[in-house]
Amino acid sequence: MAYTVEFVSPESTLYSGQAVQVVARTxxxxxxxxxxxxxxxxxxxLTCEVKVTEEGGDERRFAVRGGFVSVAGSMAQTTVTVLxxxxxxxxxxxxxxxxxxxxxxxxxxxxxxxxxxxxDNLRWAEVRLAILGAE
Length: 135
What we know:
The chain is of the alpha+beta class. The chain is built from two helices and seven strands; from the N terminus they run βββββββαα. Strands 1-2-4-5-6 form a five-stranded mixed barrel. The chain starts with a strand and ends with a helix.
């Protein structure tokens, strides 16, 4: 049974569709799968890959730079919403840009290994490259 899934940023809706499963990685909770009728839930997302299995069985993959996931509704009508400042559909990821971001973050960490922004930038680049199979 399918339910509504949306990826929303402050600027736009990246994706809206029907799915039978969404898998994401939450802060402190590890990977979690959402199916039709999931209990209401709000969780903080790590920078991670989010997989959406659509009603017909196709799998969509998204790179998400942190944010939140919300599950609302009832057993009969569930909605999963991913809220993030930055998210990319796998088909939209630019491998060259992700590699540049990775190199820049590595250089920054070489001179300042405790820089939290550089660590976050490194993880963002790694997730995008992993989705592309280009790590």
